[in-house]
Amino acid sequence: MSGNEMKYISDAFETNWIAPLGPNVDAFEKEIATYVGVNEAVAVSSGTAAIHLALSLLDVKRADKVFCSTLTFVASANPILYQGAEPVFIDSEPETWNMSPQALEKALKDAFNDGKLPKAVIVVNLYGQSAKMDEIVSICNQYDVPIIEDAAESLGSTYKGKASGTLGKFGVFSFNGNKIITTSSGGMLVSNDVEALKKARFLATQAKDPALHYQHSTIGFNYRMSNILAGVGRAQLEVLEKRVQARRSLFDRYYQELYFIPGIQFMPELQQTQSNRWLTALTINEEVTGTSVHSILNALSEENIEARPVWKPLHMQPLFEGVKCYPHSENMCVAEKLFDTGLCLPSGSNMTEEDQSRVIKCMKELLKIKV
Ligand SMILES: *Cc1c(COP(=O)(O)O)cnc(C)c1O
């Protein structure tokens, strides 16, 4: 927390706005919309809820197809299943670790030839890094398929001067406890389509028809953000830029200290993009270093250092068994390779210099000895 949260929480208590609506919710929505530069934002209970609403707004139904990045957290794709629709996964490419435009193009071509284009493409910006949005937008426009930009991990990042999360039809942010700013749990759906977001608010509050009696004609959800939590969000947004700077500094120091070790490669930052470096991620080439990611994770854990593998690709998950994944190139799945070799180092915005020194020292010991 930044220290200012209690002020906004107290406002909520003093005015008795203890509900999933109120002045903090309205203000937080306006502040996020202004910050990222869109017409409208809707505060919701989670990033997952925001993705679900976006799919509902795009009329995704049973047996519809939705394309989604494979290298991501399961929450990107779960809402596809909520709607009874069918996911198709798209591989990553090496320059951003995100959706491969090449694989996407092939998948859309196949879908077009089958006469069944997807209702939406969910593009994820992994660990803060934007996907190749120009290429992806242009391919999707060709087939007239809308994009949902899953920017849950990339709030504060930019792509060619534009805020991450504003390059598709809808953008999604998460304020879960692990994200760069948090409301403990929460999310935001953003768009320039004001009418669509009006409908999002309607769907997120049980889809109550405009009648005095309780009347409902369509399925609704209970997805709005609490006015107390929106207060937390307002104070957090004030320090977002500082958080981005902190995470980028952590990355820079890890990079300076470790980049020269043979077999180590840090997650790249695409030209004309700025990543919030939510997590510092890198790959370890076992053939060069003689050490696997698995053994590094274990060794760090013994030192009480919590590092993580990269997300397990969704097409490899038991939940999505049998779901097709379009690879980046015919004989290489980039996401599988990143999963085999990828590692996320401790990257909390409040990490001390000494803590980071300890991680760096361990990494050097683990890797140098065997080089
Ligand atoms: C965290 C996350 C989500 C889900 O956000 P919640 O607020 O936890 O529901 C979705 N997609 C990605 C890529 C995430 O990292």
Output the keywords.
371 residues, PyrdxlP-dep_Trfase_major, alpha/beta, Aspartate Aminotransferase, domain 1, 13 helices, binds pyridoxal-5'-phosphate, 15 strands, four-stranded antiparallel β-sheet, eight-stranded mixed β-sheet, 2 domains, Aspartate Aminotransferase, domain 2, single chain
Describe this structure in words.
The protein is of the alpha/beta class and 371 residues long. The protein folds into two domains: 5-237, Aspartate Aminotransferase, domain 2, CATH 3.40.640.10; 240-366, Aspartate Aminotransferase, domain 1. It has helices at residues 5-14, 23-36, 47-57, 78-82, 101-113, 133-143, 194-204, 227-238, 240-258, 286-289, 293-302, 334-341, 353-368; strands at residues 40-44, 65-69, 86-90, 120-124, 147-150, 158-159, 162-163, 170-174, 187-191, 264-266, 273-274, 280-284, 308-309, 325-326, 342-345. Helix 1 (5-14) runs antiparallel to helix 8 (227-238) and helix 2 (23-36) packs parallel to helix 8 (227-238). It binds pyridoxal-5'-phosphate. Pyridoxal-5'-phosphate (PLP) is lined by residues 46-48, 72-73, 75-76, 124, 150, 152-153, 174, 176, 187. This is Aminotransferase class I/II-fold pyridoxal phosphate-dependent enzyme. GO terms for molecular function: transaminase activity. It comes from Metabacillus halosaccharovorans. Pfam families: DegT_DnrJ_EryC1.
Short structural description:
It holds the Pfam family DegT_DnrJ_EryC1. With 371 residues, the chain is α/β, with parallel strands linked by helices. Helices cover 39% and strands 15% of the residues.
